[in-house]
Amino acid sequence: MRGHWTAVVVAAMATACTTEREPASRTAVSQKLPARFSTIGRAASNTEIRAWDIDVNPTGAGLPAGRGTYARGAQVYAEQCASCHGAKGEGIAPNPKLIGPDPRDFSFASDAKIPRTIGNYWPYATTLYDYVNRAMPFATPGSLPPSDVYSVVAYLLAENSVIDKQMIIDAQSLPRVRMPSRDRFVLDDRKGGAGFR
Ligand code: HEC
Has residue 17 got a pLDDT over 70? Predict the structure, then answer.
C-alpha cells in the first residue's frame, strides 16, 4: 500500500511541475546553454575509434590481417551458424538461406519468392566479410576473430560454387574473388528525371 501511495504522490508532483513550470524552465535552459559542452563527455581514444572502424569496402580496404580455410569455416559454420541458417545453409525461416547458387538468371527480380543468396545475388565477396563480421552470429556479433570470419567466408563462397575449397581467404585474395552477379549491378548515374536502369 505504501508503495502505491508514494507512486501517486510522485505522479501528482510531476504533473504539477510540468504544468506550472514548463514555460519558465524552457527559457531558462535556452539562456544557460554554454557555447561548448566541455564538461560533458570526453574525446574518444584512438583505441575506441578503431573498435568502431570496422567497415570493409568493395575494394577490400579495411580487411584485417588473418587467413581462413574452408575446413575451419565448415567447423565455424556448424557451431555458430547452422542452428539458424540450416546444416546445409538452406535457411530455417525466418533466418535466410545462405547456400544455393541457383537460379543464376536473376529471376527473383520478377518473383520475390525465389530466394536471393550469396551465390546468386551478392555483387562483392568483401561485403560477405563485412556483413558477417559486423552482424553475425545474430546474438553475438563481433565475437568471431578475423581468421574465423575469413574461414566462414571461404566456406560460404565455396558452398555457393564461387571459389575452390582449397583457396585460402585473406585480405589479398578476397577482393580478387569475382562474384557471379557482379555485372548485374550498375552504378546509378541518373542525373534526375524518369526511368530506371
Ligand atoms: C540466432 C540466429 C542466427 C545465427 C546463429 C546466425 N545468423 Fe546469420 N542471419 C540471421 C538472421 C535473422 C538474418 C537476417 C538479418 C536481417 O535481414 O537483418 C541473418 C542474415 C545473415 C546473412 C545475410 C543473408 C542475405 O543474403 O541477406 C549472412 C551472410 C549470415 N546471416 C551469415 C551468418 C553466419 C556466417 C553465421 C555464423 C557465424 C550466422 N549468420 C549466424 C540469424 C542468424
Answer: no
